[in-house]
Design goal:
- By secondary structure, the chain is of the alpha+beta class.
- Helices cover 51% and strands 10% of the residues.
- The strands form four sheets. Strands 1-2-3-4-6-5 form a six-stranded antiparallel β-sheet, covered by helices on one side.
- Helix 3 packs antiparallel against helix 5 and helix 25 runs antiparallel to helix 26.
- The longest helix is centred in the last third of the chain and has 21 residues.
- It is globular.
Length: 888
């Protein structure tokens, strides 16, 4: 979120601190009491063992709100922390707990999702959905007034959220513009349940007490009378009035809120302040604002129906076209407001003019990241529609050689984060986002092309029939490529226009499976995706895209379960996909990954070169090809491929990371440091860059810098590699107990870490805990045996297993596996180094010196070699000091 942004947890003073008399006109919610015990937390600081704070994004009467990373869920959240020290603390904390309880009862796209309630060192917190956008209050402040169509669009979404709340017999009681978020796709989200209460449950406020922000309370709230769903309808009327007029009702600027005006005073119709507002819209607002609840709309659904009828009347006879243009290079602060106005969809109809085209950076192909389109329908079951359209755009853009399209998985990892952050971390020139709304059999799709500076370059709204969804997909792809000013050949145009399948039901199954794969962290989702994709290909056996997705899903299943059968199934599905459509580069890239993952690097390289012939701007393919060439000892070719990846996407941290790792593998540590430092600049809130930077410093013998880098990585997000490297650093310093603790923490977080288990075993051995050391070495052997069943030529697994076997006294096994490792990777520095270590442990000193020399010539760190306790037998040999001297 950019500075000055908002989140669903920081909407101003939304909690009443005191009760007031019915006739009082004094503000109910005042400033927070002084002297409250509440810590100020710094960016990068841990909050408990689950959250890493990124920045403070708001404060209210009850405490601070922080943007944070939930390391358990792997997502960005908003943390609302409650102060302690209130005079009525017990009641306040009970209200806080109830906010979570009530909010968790409601699951709806237009209601803020709440994840967890907890307590850390006496501080209560709620973690909730982090929304990239702004409050409706800020939107109104920035644009003055909204058009009737835009007001209806947002108003209907608020109604949908209220209806979901009311269906759970919950009354919100604090609806206002500051408690509605509008994200960057125009999606409205009702939030802040701090004053809600449930019918038939105990109330927390006494008879006659007033809760709610005074300007937005209803007459029954003001006079301490019972409240129900119609209380929220009154507040909705106030919100609609403010969107249409830019003023709080009744619009005269007086200090007394409408609810506390004399009973005979009526709110003037919005038309009096904004003549362009239709009389029908004014009538809807005034009915919401009736003093007697019985005269208002009976439900949010009834209000929504009235707004929908008016929207239909306003839209009749108006055809769809392009959205209102946005100025080029609009400042971030104003583009947020403009963007949400453009894409707010809730049934408002189209407003259309000619849109600006983006201006690509001279000399560079556009790098485009397509995010799943938001579901702005009332039905959560429509989520697959936006995923399906985004998937189509990714697949079709991948077939355009002049465009670099970001992989699905990379974009999904950043879902929910601010647009500018996503663009920065992906090194994207443009993001594609938007929303999809279904109404009966009609679909409305909004697409936005957003620059990396968060300004909107282009927007388009499309409408079509759900029974002809492929026409809508085709139009979306065509208009997007036009916006990117990409020249297409006739063949490329034909490919762009081709439907992936002729069976709409099969495609719906495919899109639902993609939705499941988006959240592969949820237990059962991968299996569910596989079952759904099987049904899709049974429905249409010629559906190549579904076969390809099935292959991906099986490979994911193998990575999670290590079930070898899934590998064969993955190959079968991908092979069938390519038989049906041999020209799809994304499918060939998946096949290359499968070949590489199973040790068939010749076939992997062949597939990658086919990918690059179809899509020369595929930096993922250049990166993987460079990595394979590096492992095969072709260092010059490897560096050329990795440099090419950086040139294609120069602001993408992972490209810099792979290039830095190549220099690290080659023993060129100062160059590795330079690229890893660049990673930390591109991704300052990412732990991986600091972890790798620490490894490079450690290999150079700069242990203080290495330790600081590891600590920085862990402060941002606990990283098993950072813990493992920190443990290895403590080990070579002779701090064996500290080494064991760090390595145990790494294993606690991931038990399948053979390298870390090796060092943990060594630490236990130095501490005299022989049984625990042996257990670690046995685990190393078991893990590497599992890996070798899928990739029998995995030189790293073979050599590490041989080292563990040597420490277990299994000399014959160690020799056999070392021979296999060298046959697979004869010049690999780690293989050579481990062989030297095994030889030294056996007392084969002369042989160990020769092998160690070969490892150092291939780039192994002389610093690490000097520190290795397993090479202690060599230290007194003639020539040893010269051998391990710094070769830089």
């Amino acid at each position: 979120m950019p500075p000055g942004g908002h989140c669903p947890a920081c909407s101003g003073a939304t909690f009443a601190e005191d009760a007031a008399s019915a006739a009082s006109t004094a503000p109910i919610a005042g400033p927070p009491p002084r002297g409250l015990a509440f810590p100020r937390l710094a960016p990068g600081q841990r909050f408990g063992d689950r959250y890493t704070l990124i920045e403070e994004i708001g404060a209210g009467g009850m405490g601070q709100v922080y943007k944070a990373i939930d390391v358990r869920l792997g997502k960005t959240v908003a943390l609302k922390l409650v102060r302690t020290g209130f005079e009525d603390q017990d009641q306040t904390l009970e209200r806080f707990r109830r906010e979570l309880t009530l909010a968790q009862e409601v699951t709806h796209p237009n209601v803020c999702r709440v994840y967890d309630l907890g307590e850390v060192d006496g501080t209560l917190f709620i973690s909730m959905e982090y929304v990239d956008g702004q409050t409706l209050d800020d939107l109104i402040q920035s644009v003055g007034t909204l058009s009737t169509k835009q007001t209806i669009a947002i108003g209907r979404q608020i109604c949908a959220g209220l209806e979901a709340i009311h269906q759970r017999r919950i009354v919100h009681r604090d609806l206002k513009p500051a408690n509605a978020m509008i994200d960057r796709s125009g999606h409205a989200i009702v939030m802040d349940f701090g004053l809600a209460y449930h019918h038939e449950r105990d109330r927390l406020t006494g008879q006659g007490a007033i809760l709610g922000t005074l300007a937005y309370i209803s007459p029954e709230q003001a006079y301490g009378q019972p409240t129900d769903a119609r209380t929220d309808i009154y507040a909705a009327g106030l919100v609609l009035f403010e969107m249409l007029t830019g003023k709080r009702a009744p619009g005269d600027g007086g200090s007394a809120p409408l609810a506390l005006r004399p009973a005979g005073e009526r709110c003037p119709p919005p038309t009096h302040l904004s003549p362009e507002v239709p009389p029908e819209m004014s009538a809807i607002v005034l009915r919401c604002l009736e003093r007697d609840p019985a005269h208002r709309y009976a439900s949010a659904g009834e209000l929504d129906a009235a707004l929908a009828r008016l929207a239909a009347n306003l839209s009749s006879g108006i055809s769809a076209g392009r959205v209102r243009p946005l100025p080029v290079r609009t400042p971030v602060a104003s583009v947020t407001a403009a963007a949400v106005v453009v894409v707010a969809l809730g049934g408002a109809g189209g407003w259309w003019t000619t849109a600006h085209r983006p201006h690509p950076v001279a000399g560079r192909r556009p790098v485009v990241a397509v995010l799943p389109l938001d579901n702005v329908s009332n039905d959560p079951g429509d989520e697959y529609l936006g995923v399906g359209i985004a998937d189509t755009l990714i697949t079709r853009l991948a077939g355009v050689p002049a465009v670099t399209v970001v992989s699905r998985s990379a974009a999904l990892e950043l879902r929910g984060r601010p647009s500018a952050t996503v663009a920065r971390e992906l090194g994207a020139t443009y993001l594609v986002n938007g929303g999809v709304q279904r109404a009966d059999h009609r679909l409305r799709v909004t697409l936005n092309l957003v620059r990396a500076d968060d300004s909107v370059a282009w927007g388009e709204e499309l409408e079509g029939d759900i029974d002809d969804v492929f026409a809508l997909h085709r139009k979306a792809a065509e208009t997007l490529t036009e916006a990117l000013e990409v020249s297409l050949s006739d063949t490329e145009r034909q490919r762009l226009a081709r439907a992936p399948t002729g069976d709409a039901d099969a495609y719906a199954m495919y899109a639902r499976a993609r939705t499941l794969l988006e959240r592969r962290d949820v237990p059962g989702n991968v299996g569910g995706a596989i079952d759904t994709l099987k049904r899709a290909v049974q429905k249409d056996p010629s559906f190549a895209q579904a076969h390809a997705a099935l292959g991906e899903a099986y490979w994911i299943q193998y990575q999670e379960t290590r079930d070898e059968a899934a590998v064969g199934q993955a190959f079968g599905a991908i092979t069938e996909a390519l038989r049906l459509d041999s020209g799809q580069p994304l499918t060939r890239f998946v096949l290359a990954r499968l070949y590489n993952g199973t040790g068939r690097t010749d076939q992997a390289m062949e597939e990658l070169r086919r990918v690059l012939a179809l899509q020369p701007g595929n930096d993922d393919a250049h990166r993987l090809l460079g990595d394979i060439l590096l492992a095969r000892g072709a260092s010059a070719e490897a560096l050329a491929e990795l440099e090419r990846a950086v040139q294609i996407r120069p602001d993408y941290w992972e490209n810099e990371s792979f290039l830095g790792y190549a220099y690290y593998r080659l023993g060129r540590f100062p160059e590795a440091v330079r690229h890893f430092q660049r990673v930390t600049e591109l991704q300052p809130d990412g732990s991986r860059g600091f972890q790798m930077l620490g490894a490079a410093y450690q290999s150079m013998g700069e242990n203080d810098r290495a330790l600081k880098s590891y600590e920085k990585a862990i402060a941002i997000r606990p990283d098993v590699r950072a813990y493992g490297n920190m443990g290895a650093l403590y080990y070579v310093q002779g701090r064996y107990a500290e080494a064991a603790r760090a390595l145990e923490e790494a294993i606690r977080r991931d038990a399948n870490l053979p390298r870390q288990l090796r060092y943990l075993g060594d630490s236990y051995r130095q501490l005299g805990q022989a049984d625990k050391a042996r257990e670690c070495y046995l685990k190393v052997v078991k893990l590497e045996e599992d890996a070798l069943r899928v990739n029998p030529r995995d030189a790293d697994a073979l050599s590490l297993m041989a080292l563990a076997e040597a420490k277990l006294g299994r000399a014959a096994d160690a020799d056999r596996h070392l021979a296999d490792a060298q046959a697979a990777a004869p010049r690999d520095k780690d293989v050579l180094y481990r062989k030297a270590t095994v030889q030294a442990l056996r007392g084969e000193k002369a042989e160990a010196m020769v092998t160690l020399d070969a490892a150092l010539k291939q780039g192994y760190s002389p610093v690490l070699a000097r520190q290795e306790t397993d090479l202690a037998a060599l230290r007194n040999l003639p020539g040893y000091k010269a051998l391990v001297a710094d070769r830089r």
